[in-house]
Amino acid sequence: MEPGQEPAAGMACAGGAEPCGDSCGDERPAWGNKMQYLLSCIGFAVGLGNIWRFPYLCQTYGGGAFLIPYLIALVLEGIPVFYIELAIGQRLRRGSIGVWTAISPYLGGVGLGCLTVSFLVSLYYNTVLTWVLWYLLNSFQYPLPWSSCPLDLNRTGLEAECQASGPVSYFWYRQTLNITADISDNGSIQWPLLACLAASWAVVYLCVIRGIESTGKAIYFTALFPYLVLTIFLIRGLTLPGAVKGLIYLFTPDVQILQNPRVWLDAATQIFFSLSLAFGGHIAFASYNPPGNNCEKDAVTIALVNSMTSLYASIAVFSVLGFKAANDHGRCLDRNILHLINAFDFPEQSISRDDYAAVLMNLNTTQPERVARLPLEVCHLDDFLDKSASGTGLAFIVFTEAILHMPGAPGWAVLFFGMLFTLGLSSMFGNMESIITPLLDMGVMSRSVPKEVLTGLVCLLCFLSAICFMFQSGNYWLEVFDNYAAPLNLIILAFFEVVGVTYVYGMCRFSDDIACMTGRQPGLYWRLTWKVVSPLLLLTIFVAYIAVLAWTPLSYRAWNTQYARFPSRQEKSYPGWVQAMCVLLCFLPSLWVPAVALVQRLAKRRPKQDAWQDSLWGLSPPEILNLAPAIAATRDPKYHTQTWPFLRPLLSASLGGSHVQWLKDNPDHKRVLGALSSPMTRGPTSPGGANQQLKSQGLRGERAET
Amino acid sequence: MYWSKGISHVLLCNVTQRVSFWFVVTDPSKNHTLPAVEIQSAIRMNRNRINNAFFLNDQTLEFLKIPSTLAPPTDPSVPIWIIIFSVIFCIVIVAVLLLILSGIRQRRRKSKGASEVDGTEDKCENMITIENGIPCDPLDTKGGHINDAFMTEDERLTPL
Q1: Within a domain: B3
Q2: Contact call for residues A124 and A478 (beta carbons, < 8 A)
Q3: Is A148 part of any known ligand binding site?
Q4: Residues in Cβ contact with A9 at an 8 Å cutoff, skipping those fewer than 6 apart
């Protein structure tokens, strides 16, 4: 500790200290053990995006070269913002709304914004889980239902739509979604999917029914099972033919691609969403921690585990995709070989796949006209390897087709969809906690109502709202939500988070809080990234994202059987009202921030009535006394220094000389008024630093005597 | 006797790529050929028997203008996904009910226990409130002595 620094910071935080945020006697739930907390954060961060977004980005942006912008973004933006969330949650021991209201009433909107975004995301995230559950339920049969087309009406051939598109796409678009050709055509509710939606919300409710008490137990399975399955898939995938070639092709770095600015933007947004920042979930999880927990180590560990999982998953995924590409390439060759054999009357199986190229060249030189008339396809392995997919396309079409060709297909399908379900479930826990914890802290329902009722009501509300995705056009709406509801809002909220903690709460105070919790002040790396790098980076991402959104036309790809180039998806633009909804979704949750700030500003300017109320926010004396605990909970020193001079005569006036006895009888107010009376040695409004120093030493001297 | 003559006495004509022939079915009593439509529907119904007679199948024995009827995949009477879904759903509902009931029982036990214990102890005694990293005054009433925090007033306050 350097001599110039505030010595109090090292002496603070005696073991078991309870910060002013909690009122006395209110037991905040706590984690069963550290492992539950770590697994919950890891489960929240590791989600479906690690499986189906990161491998796609790796593949599109030059394989191994993508890791460079990814790691840079992780170090400069991901880990610092993540650390802030964990630290502030652990320090102030509140959910997202409580934390930001405590930092400054003007920032209360950040918490409400986080709540809204979490609500919107949980709606469509659980819909994806519904689809995964549907596939999981259908995997317990042989042959798998997406392995063959159904027959047409007079049973003389295959269903026309299926024959054109392939059985896997048909099962996804027709038998699962029963999708319409246009987003404005809602169609009817899909009852099987509705049943699966009810089941998946019931499972979520079962796991979050008692808050972290129940998620702490469920997380052991839901967070660890995906790693087990990924390992099994990795081992199986690496032994499949064609897997290694796929891995080499997909990981070979193409450094030229780093010159494209889109790569850097996508890397930054990927690390941001992959860590599930600005949802309020990590704040909620950390708020249940003991104050002395080392959150710095936690932040770095969890972020690294998340990135390692992305890499691990992409190896497993690429090896299976390599196998699929090799398979498709082989069948392409087989079709060409059959054409040659039929045309030139070769004996059956006389041309193997390896001989094909030589035989074709031979025939081309001897009889080029006959060869030219044959409908031969061009079969390059690289073309098949390039066929990439992300999101639901990867999970429900590409990967399911790859599984069909693996021996023991139903077992692999069960494992795969079970893994996806548990991955999504552990992320849902974080989403639900980020909704439930702020509501509990705000005291939306009275203390006598059990927590199970609140969680039940939240789950019921989410279930009823998510029914809109169960219509035939549900997939199109899900894409709207996925593309527009979350990304921009999260970036805005994260920016306010970093700026709020670093500049409004105060870097010095935050550093001391961290020293209090972890035992040492944050180093230069943290200070630099928090003050300068992360806000700038977030601002840049925000501007770039808006530019990209403004540039790309608002359109979607529809599954239209009447389309001339079916089974290619038809590019359609959104109707006007849907476009308006997209823009609304982009900004609505973030509007809480200016709205709450405006409301707070207007509330401060209420007309004054007499001298008492002149300086104390227009409140009458009894109201002030009642608000004393809340006043103490706010961290702004300006409130405290103004309050005490009014409260002291207030007490003498209203209670006479027996105010000490009154204080003994009112433990809450006693503790709080003590807090109000202690001098503030830091803060933007306290004058006279030297005076403060002396006063604080005097205070400590007095305490030592008593 | 005929087989010993060997293959040289077999004459071929109108050779095509595959073994194929035309045929008509006559009705000796009525002395006319049966219409093609009737024959086609009859062959359709008995396709399997005809194939088996030749030890061939639908791909290798083709009747022109009679598309083969494909065998539909075997559908269980109740789709499998409904069975598994009901199992999972029942387990989840039972678990939820169990948890809710145990929560109610716990709460009843706690409220019974709390009403027996007298009053609420002052839990604030041992709490050290923290402001800016500095422990606030622990205003405890141990021993009931008057707390100096409220006696010495003005020196400790920030002048406004």
Answers
A1: no
A2: yes
A3: no
A4: A1, A512, A515, A516, A521, B133
pTM of the model: 0.78
Check whether residue B36 and residue B47 sit in a common domain: yes
Residues B53, B26: one domain?
yes
Residues B36 and B51 in one domain: yes
Q: Whole-angstrom Cα distance, residue A2 to residue A7? A: 9
Model-level ipTM above the cut of 0.90: no
Say if residue B21 is in the same domain as residue B69. Answer: yes
Residues of A in contact with B147 (CB under 8 A): 660, 663, 706
The 3-class SS string of chain B reads CCHHHCHHHCCCCCCCCCCCCCCCCEECCCCEECCHHHHHHHHHHCHHHHHHHHCCCCCCCCCCCCCCCCCCCCCCCCCHHHHHHHHHHHHHHHHHHHHHHHHHHHHHHHHHHHHHCCCCCCCCCCCCCEECCEECCCCCCHHHCCCHHHCCCHHHCCCC
State the residue range of the domain holding B32: 17-73
* pLDDT above 50: residue A20: no
Question: Among partner residues A20, A150, A158, which is closest to B129 by beta-carbon distance?
Answer: A20
Give how many domains chain B has, as a whole number.
2
Residue B146 lies in a domain: no
Residue B133 to residues A11, A515, A636, Cα–Cα distance (Å):
8, 9, 14
pLDDT surpasses 90 at B87: yes
Does B100 contact A696 at a Cβ distance shorter than 8 Å?
no
- Cβ of A682 within 8 Å of Cβ of B137? The answer is no
pLDDT band at A146 (very low <50, low <70, confident <90, very high): very high
* Pair A209, B97: CB distance under 8 Å: no
Peptide bond into A567 cis (omega under 30): yes
Answer whether residue B151 is part of any domain.
Answer: no
**For a pLDDT cut of 70, what percent of chain A falls above it?**
82
* Least confident interval from A206-210, A240-244, A307-311, B128-132: B128-132
